[in-house]
C-alpha cells in the first residue's frame, strides 16, 4: 500500500472523498447537515464568528475612524460559511443598497403611464417579487438538463429592473395619448392608462426571446458588435434623459409641471417649483452626500436609501405625506393578483428588441465586476459559463416579469461596493437579500409606502441616482481608445442623442402617416419611437458607424495626434 493511501485525512477531506465516491447514504448526509445546522445555531461562533462588527458601524470621522485606518477585514468567499448575524446584516445591506433603484423603475413607469396609486403599488410589488426570484436564481446557478449551459452566474450577482424601459415608456405614452388610445379628461388631465402597460407586457413577452438567444452567443462576438462605445453612450444618454424626469418630480411632479396647476403633495398644494418642494428634495440630496462621505461602511453603501429616509422623515414632520393610499392598500400582494389586458403593439416591437439586445450586452461588465470583487477568475471556460448563465437568468427573469406583471430584469453591480467594503462575497448574504426582496413585495404596505412618496423627496433621490448612471457611462467610455475615428463616432451618436433629449418631438412630422394600413402605421410608429428615444437612437448610430467605418492604422494615428486635438 502506498504512503499516500496510508495518510490520515481531516474529517472534512474524508467527508468530501466519501461523498464523491457515493459512500454516504442520503440519510447519513442529511444527518450530517442537521448536525452542522444545530452546531451553528447553538454556538457563539456559529452566530457571531470572529468578525469585528464595530468596524461596520464606525463613522468615517476622525478620531472615531482612527482605529480602523489600516484595518483589513476577513474575506469570505462565495461558498464560505458565514456567521448567522453577519449573513443577516449583509443580506439587509445588499437589499437596502438595491431598493431605491428597484422601486424607482416601477414608480417612473407609473408616472409615465399616469397609473393611479393602487396600480403603481401593484407594479412595485410585482417588480420586487420578480427581482427577488431572479436574484435567487442568479446566485444559485442551475444547470440546464443534459446541456453544458446554465441559468445564473453562481456569484453574489443581483438582478433588478432596467431603467432602459423608462425612456421607451415616456415616448410611447406621449404617442398613445396623442392618438387617443389613452384617454384625456375634458379638463386636459391625463387619465390612467393600464392598457398601455398591458401592451408593454405583451410586447415584452414576444421580444424577450432574443435575449435568450444572445445567451448562447460567445461574449467575444457580442463585444465586437457592441463595444464599450455603444454601452457607454447608452448609459450616458440615458442618465441625461432621465434626469429631466427626476427634476420634474423634485419640483412637485410631472403632471403639475405639464399642466401648470397646483401640485398634489400632501396637504400643501403649490405650483411646480415652490421653495418648499425644492427644499424637500434638497434635504434628500444633501443627506445622501453627507452619509456617503462621513457614514460608517454599512451606511455608505446604503447612503441612497438612508438619504431617502431623511427626506421622508422631514416631509412627514411637515405634513407633506398622503397616507390614504397606504391605508387602503391590501395587506398582501403577489404576481397575477391583478388582470391586465395583454396586447402586442407593433410600434413597441423594434424598440423592445433593441432594448433586450442591449440588456444582453450591458450585463457583461457587471458580471465581470462582481467576479473581480468576489476574487473569482475573469477568463477561461468557467467565467464564460458564468456570463452565459447570467444573460440567460436575466432573460428568464424578464419572461417571469412579463407574465407576472413586472418589468424587464437585468444584472446589476450596485452591490459590489458592499462586497468590497465588508469583504463578504458569500452567496448566503445574497440569498438572504433575495428572500427579503420577495417578502417586501408580498407585504404590499411596503410597496404602497414607496408609491406614496412625496414627489419632491423622490425627485431629490432620482437626480442623484441618475447621476450615478451617467458616471457609469463615463467610466465605460473612459476605456475607449480616443482615436480620431472613435471621437468622430461618439460625437455623432452623442450629438443626435443630446438633440433628441432637448427637442423630443423633432421627428413628429417626418414620417407622419394618415392611411388605413395598420401594419404600416405600427411600423412607422415603431421607427418614430426609436428615433424619439434618444439613448436608443444615439447608441444605434454609434453601433452602425463603428461597424461600417474602417479602423485601420488607429494606433499610429493616435500616436501622431496632439493631445489637445478636438476632432
Automatic annotation (TrEMBL):
Signal peptide coordinates: none
Principal subcellular localization: membrane
Transmembrane segments: 84-108, 120-137, 149-170, 196-218, 225-244, 274-292, 304-322, 342-364, 429-453, 459-481, 488-507, 527-549
Keyword terms, alphabetized: Membrane, Transmembrane, Transmembrane helix, Transport
Membrane topology annotation: Multi-pass membrane protein
Localisation per UniProt entry: Membrane
GO cellular component assignments: fungal-type vacuole; plasma membrane
GO MF annotation: an example: xanthine transmembrane transporter activity
Family: Belongs to the nucleobase:cation symporter-2 (NCS2) (TC 2.A.40) family.
Entry protein name: Purine permease
Amino acid at each position: 500500500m502506498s504512503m499516500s493511501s496510508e495518510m490520515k485525512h481531516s474529517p472534512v477531506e474524508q467527508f468530501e472523498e466519501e461523498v464523491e465516491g457515493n459512500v454516504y447514504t442520503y440519510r447519513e448526509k442529511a444527518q450530517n447537515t442537521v448536525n452542522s445546522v444545530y452546531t451553528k445555531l447553538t454556538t457563539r461562533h456559529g452566530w457571531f464568528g470572529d468578525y469585528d462588527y464595530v468596524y461596520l458601524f464606525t463613522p468615517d470621522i476622525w478620531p472615531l475612524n482612527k482605529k480602523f485606518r489600516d484595518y483589513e477585514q476577513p474575506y469570505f468567499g462565495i461558498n464560505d460559511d458565514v456567521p448567522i448575524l453577519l449573513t443577516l446584516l449583509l443580506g439587509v445591506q445588499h437589499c437596502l443598497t438595491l431598493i431605491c433603484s428597484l422601486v424607482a423603475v416601477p414608480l417612473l413607469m407609473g408616472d409615465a403611464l399616469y397609473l393611479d396609486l393602487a396600480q403603481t403599488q401593484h407594479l412595485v410589488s410585482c417588480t420586487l417579487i420578480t427581482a427577488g426570484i431572479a436574484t435567487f436564481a442568479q446566485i444559485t446557478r442551475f444547470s440546464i438538463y443534459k446541456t453544458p449551459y446554465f441559468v445564473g452566474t453562481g456569484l453574489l450577482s443581483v438582478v433588478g429592473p432596467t431603467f432602459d424601459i423608462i425612456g421607451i415608456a415616456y415616448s410611447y405614452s406621449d404617442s398613445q395619448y396623442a392618438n387617443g388610445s389613452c384617454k384625456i379628461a375634458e379638463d386636459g388631465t391625463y387619465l390612467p392608462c393600464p392598457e398601455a402597460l398591458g401592451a408593454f407586457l405583451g410586447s415584452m413577452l414576444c421580444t424577450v426571446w432574443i435575449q435568450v438567444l444572445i445567451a448562447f452567443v460567445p461574449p467575444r462576438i457580442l463585444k465586437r458588435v457592441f463595444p464599450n462605445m455603444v454601452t457607454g453612450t447608452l448609459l450616458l444618454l440615458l442618465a441625461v434623459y432621465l434626469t429631466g424626469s427626476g427634476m420634474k418630480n423634485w419640483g412637485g411632479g410631472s403632471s403639475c409641471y405639464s399642466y401648470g396647476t397646483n401640485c398634489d403633495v400632501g396637504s400643501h398644494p403649490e405650483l411646480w417649483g415652490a421653495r418648499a418642494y425644492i427644499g424637500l428634495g434638497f434635504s434628500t440630496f444633501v443627506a445622501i452626500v453627507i452619509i456617503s462621505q462621513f457614514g460608517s461602511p454599512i451606511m455608505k453603501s446604503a447612503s441612497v436609501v438612508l438619504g431617502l429616509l431623511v427626506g421622508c422623515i422631514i416631509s412627514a414632520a411637515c405634513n407633506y405625506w398622503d397616507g390614504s393610499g397606504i391605508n387602503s392598500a391590501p395587506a398582501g400582494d403577489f404576481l397575477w393578483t391583478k388582470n391586465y389586458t395583454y396586447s402586442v403593439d407593433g410600434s413597441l416591437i423594434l424598440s423592445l428588441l433593441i432594448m433586450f439586445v442591449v440588456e444582453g450586452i450591458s450585463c457583461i461588465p457587471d458580471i465581470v465586476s462582481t467576479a473581480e470583487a468576489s476574487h473569482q477568475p475573469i477568463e477561461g471556460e468557467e467565467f464564460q459559463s458564468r456570463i452565459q448563465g447570467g444573460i440567460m437568468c436575466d432573460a428568464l427573469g424578464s419572461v417571469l416579469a412579463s407574465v407576472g406583471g413586472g418589468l424587464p430584469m437585468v444584472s446589476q453591480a450596485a452591490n459590489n461596493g458592499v462586497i468590497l467594503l465588508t469583504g463578504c462575497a458569500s452567496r448566503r448574504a445574497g440569498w438572504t437579500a433575495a428572500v427579503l426582496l420577495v417578502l417586501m413585495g408580498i407585504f404590499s404596505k411596503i410597496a404602497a409606502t414607496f408609491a406614496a412618496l412625496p414627489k419632491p423627496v423622490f425627485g431629490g433621490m432620482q437626480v442623484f441616482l441618475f447621476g450615478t448612471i451617467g458616471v457609469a457611462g463615463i467610466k465605460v467610455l473612459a476605456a475607449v481608445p480616443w482615436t480620431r475615428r472613435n471621437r468622430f463616432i461618439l460625437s455623432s451618436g452623442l450629438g443626435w442623442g443630446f438633440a433628441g433629449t432637448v427637442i423630443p418631438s423633432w421627428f413628429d412630422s417626418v414620417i407622419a402617416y394618415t392611411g388605413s394600413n395598420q401594419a404600416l402605421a405600427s411600423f412607422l410608429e415603431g421607427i418614430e419611437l426609436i428615433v424619439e428615444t434618444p439613448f436608443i437612437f444615439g447608441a444605434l448610430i454609434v453601433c452602425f458607424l463603428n461597424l461600417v467605418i474602417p479602423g485601420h492604422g488607429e494606433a499610429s494615428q493616435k500616436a501622431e495626434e496632439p493631445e489637445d486635438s478636438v476632432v
